[in-house]
Structure formats: C-alpha cells, structure tokens
Specification:
Blueprint lengths: L1 H23 L13 H22 L5 H18 L1 H4 L2 H15 L2
Helix pairs in contact: 1-2, 1-5, 2-3, 3-5
Length: 106
C-alpha cells in the first residue's frame, strides 16, 4: 500500500510539471488547449514540489506529510478548475490523495 500511495503522489507531481513546461514552451504541448501564463506555470511547479516533498516525507515516515499532500491536492484542484477541459480527470487523483491524507493527520 505504501508503494501505491508513493507512486500516486509522484505521478501526480510529474503531471503537474506539464503546466510548467506549457508556460515556458507554448508550442511543446499542443494537446493542452489553454495558454498558461508564467505565473500560473509557477503555481503548477509549486504544486509539483509540494507533492514531491509529501512523497519524500511519506517514505521517510515524517508526520508532516499529510499537510503537504493536502496542500498540494488543494492547489492542484484550484489549477484544475482553471484548466478544466484539459485536466478534469486530475480531480479523481486529488480525491484519492485527500482520502489517504486526512486519516493520516490523526
């Protein structure tokens, strides 16, 4: 189960890096229909960093990992609402992350 949660966090973080790439290289990902500004790309990167840190903390059994993963999932959901047509299925992953993270807070 620990490997599955770790892969979920890591793969979701990698997907968020697509927003960063799209912000700087607009022609690189033509499947993403909406133009992403550099400041929004920075938010996509911040979300990826939060999820990667949550993954590292989770793997090392630090008690702060749920706070990082919840913060990353909430920021992720905000970004998904801005890019709904391209990223709506990320909501499912965010719900899974929240479902694992909230019980771990106690």
């Amino acid at each position: 189960m620990k490997i599955l949660i770790s892969l979920l966090l890591l793969l979701h973080a990698i997907l968020h890096l697509m927003g960063l790439v799209k912000a700087f290289y607009t022609d690189f990902l033509p499947t993403i229909s909406r133009k992403i500004s550099i400041s929004e790309g920075a938010l996509w990167f911040a979300c990826a960093v939060l999820l990667i840190l949550a993954n590292v903390y989770f793997l090392n059994d630090y008690p702060f990992w749920p706070v990082l993963s919840i913060s990353g999932a909430l920021l992720s959901q905000f970004l998904i609402t801005l890019n709904w047509e391209d990223a709506k299925y990320g909501t499912i992953i965010n719900l899974l992350i929240l479902a694992v993270s909230f019980p771990a807070l106690t």
